[in-house]
């Protein structure tokens, strides 16, 4: 399931920036008075701060309630580090799943730059 989760996160990252851009542009274009634009310019950071604070508080409450990692006692001196080699090896070859999910770009701009480069190389 990890490849599907990673692919989903990449797709979400691609979609977020254009959606935010589209929302801001259509809101600004749809306003007839300049005062409304100013109010939106004030409301947007305010909403961002409020929602970010709520998300942070919710995360802190969940950490205190669930207590992830409680009861796990690891001695760093006896830890087997061979399992970390998979994440630190630069010479590792890709399998088919990694190759397919690396096709999905991490941003829409990288995607269009890649398409442009491919079209120009033909």
The separation of the N and C termini measures 36 Å
Taking Cα atoms only, what radius of gyration do you get, to the nearest Å? Answer: 22 Å
The fraction of residues in strands falls at: under 5%
Residues in helices, as a percent range: over 70%
Q: Stretches where pLDDT falls below 50 for ≥5 residues?
A: none
**SSE ordering:** HHHHH
Global morphology:
flat
Which features characterize this protein?
about 120 residues; mainly alpha; about 70% helix; flat
Task: Describe the structure in your own words.
The chain is mainly α and 122 residues long. The chain has helices at residues 2-29, 34-66, 85-88, 96-103, 108-120. It has one domain (2-120). The chain contains 5 helices and no strands. The radius of gyration is 22 Å and the shape is flat. The two termini are 36 Å apart.
Summarize the SSE layout with pairings.
Layout: H1 2-29, H2 34-66, H3 85-88, H4 96-103, H5 108-120
């Amino acid at each position: 399931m990890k490849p599907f989760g990673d692919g989903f996160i990449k797709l979400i990252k691609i979609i977020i920036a254009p959606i935010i851009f589209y929302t801001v542009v259509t809101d600004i274009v749809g306003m007839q008075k300049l005062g409304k634009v100013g109010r939106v310019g004030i409301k947007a950071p305010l909403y961002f701060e409020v929602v970010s604070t709520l998300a942070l508080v919710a995360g802190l409450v969940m950490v205190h309630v669930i207590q992830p990692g409680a009861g796990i006692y690891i001695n760093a001196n006896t830890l087997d580090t061979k399992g970390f080699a998979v994440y630190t090896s630069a010479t590792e070859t890709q399998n088919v799943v990694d190759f397919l999910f690396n096709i999905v770009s991490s941003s829409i701009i990288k995607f269009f730059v890649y398409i442009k480069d491919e079209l120009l190389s033909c």
